[in-house]
Amino acid sequence: QVLLAESGGGLVQPGGSLRLSCEASGSISFLDVMGWYRQAPGKQRELVASAKSDGNIEYADSAKGRFTISRDNSKLAVYLQMTSLKPEDTAVYYCNAIWRDYRNYPDTFWGLGTQVTVSS
User: Fold this and answer.
1) What is the gyration radius of the CA atoms in the chain, in angstroms?
2) Which of 19, 67, 103, 118 would bridge with 85, disulfide CB 3.0–4.6 Å?
3) In degrees to the nearest 10, what's the CA dihedral of 85, 92, 40, 10?
């Protein structure tokens, strides 16, 4: 079992910055993929950024140039540094992690989410 706990959300003005943190706990000591998704009211959940254990990083087009994802595997943590925030970034941000067994069968874990609101 893996539990993911997010923190760092809040209210910020347009153009501001926030740093989201996610720490994993449980019996799993290594995670293949850690990343961030977000979901705005009335919209589907979408990928923001992900980081594989091999260093491969993917960003949504909306995040490129503004957001930076990083991992600390010793802490089973993933971070999202967000800058130049826009009102359209307003959403609940969810930490995501994937663990794979020896057959490469994935288990996906989700945090409960942290609210990010970008508004004047």
Assistant:
1) 14
2) 118
3) -40
